[in-house]
Design a protein that fits this description.
CATH topology of the largest domain: Rossmann fold
Helix content: 40-55%
Strand order of the largest sheet: 3-2-1-6-7-9-8-10-11
Distance between the termini: 81 Å
CATH architecture of the largest domain: 3-Layer(aba) Sandwich
Number of helices: 21
Structural class: alpha/beta
Number of strands: 11
Radius of gyration: 28 Å
Largest sheet: 9 strands, mixed
Oligomer: single chain
């Protein structure tokens, strides 16, 4: 069989992996069982790659084990002895299989500490709380190992061809998990279409440092990277921080499975404890993008009042709504020459007063706000409320702000709406043209925004009112008369039928 014929099909791998989820369905919600399925996918990829490389070097060095091992240590990941997926599969009936998996993953992490530090430490395959008591837990883990032992799930480099197949499968699973994850889903995943839109709007360039301070599983960073990779540009740097330990691990794996080995992903609370620091201040990036949690309660108000990095000099957001805390952090971490921000926000950010109004006024007065883009409702997992994208820029050419109302153009879905390619294209084209478009976009001067008391509510700028068509009263009356005649005829017929049946109509 030729190498081309043996290559795995994207749909095939997606289907196999989704079927593997049956092990946990009904036991855990999807936002939880992804923490077990995705690490197993990562382990299977590392194992299959290692195995193929071993066979290649075995042939090259004619069985010289010392030379083979020496060469393997130079590979992307080193697989310690007894930590191959097959080693775990062969022990699938062991009474302590959860512990065996944990130990193997810890060894892999320790051996590849520079790259994989923290990737597996937050995932417990021996958790009674998550996977049930011993007998049930063992049954589920055995089933999971058997699912991944499917001969069709051969992830050797020669079979997968391009690493994108694995990365795409990983993204596919995260998206599926998010769709079934309810409220929790929005914490780790931004819908692919929204991530694509932000990446195109922010337009990453060669050499850019790109950061997501609330990176979740890293999908938005990947979309930004793809904007450059599709142009054969590899000169860029990815950074992220994620507060949830398990989601942080998923983000790191996501980078590796997309072939991005130099991404720096940190674990911690961006507001309370920013980890991307250099020379005693926050790092600066050309691009900062994020879909932070909407109106986060208990976001770190007390700590922010004494922030060591002066990120909140424009004012402190309210204790119960952290939207402007993330915005303030993002704006303060972009470079002075070409820095730009793309952030998803709830609509309240556009018009709420008090301390939020003060911060919004400061951002506008400093000519940082570049665009306000209203999105359709029900796009995001865990919430049906409409959201907007705010674009901030340093060194703007003028003081205008472009308002786009894209809320009415989308694909209507049963559970969730989506942006179609043509919707994304229209938004991006309109943003780049930076001209008013009847009932869709309006280029407002700062003077107009000031006259509106710094209120950014989109309907104040984009008039979407549609006049109702004139009603032809005579035509309507004729239609009513005709309907009344038809009704009288039907009533007469019914009366005749009832009389024939012996009913007194």
């Amino acid at each position: 069989m030729s190498n081309k014929q043996s290559q795995i099909n994207q749909d095939e791998i997606n289907q196999i992996l989704w079927q593997a989820c049956d092990t946990f369905r009904g036991i855990l919600n999807s936002a939880t069982y992804m923490n077990y399925l995705l690490p197993m996918l990562f382990l299977k990829y590392i194992s299959d790659t290692w195995e193929e490389k071993y066979e290649e070097f075995d042939k090259q060095y004619k069985g010289d084990k010392e030379r083979i091992q020496s060469r393997l240590k130079k590979e992307r990941f080193i697989l310690p002895n007894k930590c191959h997926f097959k080693d775990l599969y062969e022990q699938r009936n062991a009474a302590n299989i959860g512990e065996i998996i944990n130990v193997a993953l810890e060894k892999i992490e320790d051996t590849n500490k520079e790259k994989l530090s923290g990737v597996f430490r937050n995932i417990d395959f021996n958790s009674e709380a998550m996977l049930g008591q011993t007998k049930d837990r063992n049954t589920r883990l055995k089933s999971l190992l058997e699912d991944f032992n499917n001969p069709k799930l051969n992830l050797r480099p020669s079979r997968i061809g391009n690493l994108d197949v694995i990365g795409n499968a990983y993204e596919y699973l995260i998206g599926k998990f998010a769709a079934g994850g309810g409220q929790k889903a929005g914490e780790f995943y931004t819908p692919a279409e929204v991530s694509e839109l932000i990446a195109e709007l922010i337009e990453p360039k060669k050499g850019d440092r790109i950061c997501d301070p609330a990176c979740g599983s890293g999908s938005l960073l990947i979309k930004c990277a793809n904007q450059l990779l599709k142009k054969d540009i590899n000169d860029f740097y990815l950074y992220g921080q994620e507060v949830n330990g398990q989601t942080y691990a998923l983000a790191k794996m996501n980078m590796f499975l997309h072939g991005i080995d130099n991404a720096r992903i940190e674990w911690g609370d961006t507001i309370r404890n920013p980890k991307l620091i250099e020379k005693n201040t926050t790092m600066k990036f050309e691009v900062v993008v994020a879909n932070p949690p909407f109106s986060l309660d208990k976001w770190g108000y007390d700590e922010a009042s004494a922030d060591a990095y002066n990120r909140f000099h424009r004012g402190l957001p309210p204790k119960t709504k952290g939207d402007f805390a993330f915005i303030s952090h993002m704006v303060e971490t972009i470079t002075e020459d070409s820095g730009r921000v793309g952030v998803v926000v709830p609509h309240g950010v556009l018009f709420r007063g008090s301390s939020e109004g003060k911060i919004r006024k400061s951002l506008i007065d400093d000519n940082l706000l570049d665009a306000v883009i209203g999105l359709p409702s029900n796009l995001f997992f865990g919430t049906g409320i409409p959201a907007a994208i705010l674009i901030f820029k340093k060194k703007k050419k003028d003081d205008s702000v472009l308002f786009i109302d894209a809320s009415r153009e989308f694909q209507d879905g049963k559970n969730q709406n989506t942006l179609r390619p043509q919707d994304i294209e229209k938004i991006v084209k309109t943003y780049k043209a930076r001209e008013s478009v009847d009932k869709y976009a309006y280029k407002a001067k700062k003077k107009e925004i000031v006259e509106n008391d710094y209120n950014l509510n989109i309907p104040r700028y984009v008039d979407t009112f549609e006049e109702e068509a004139e009603i032809d009263i005579n035509a309507v009356q004729k239609e009513i008369n005709q309907l009344e005649k038809e009704l009288a005829t039907v009533q007469a017929q019914m009366k005749g039928y009832l009389k024939e049946l012996g009913y007194d109509a």
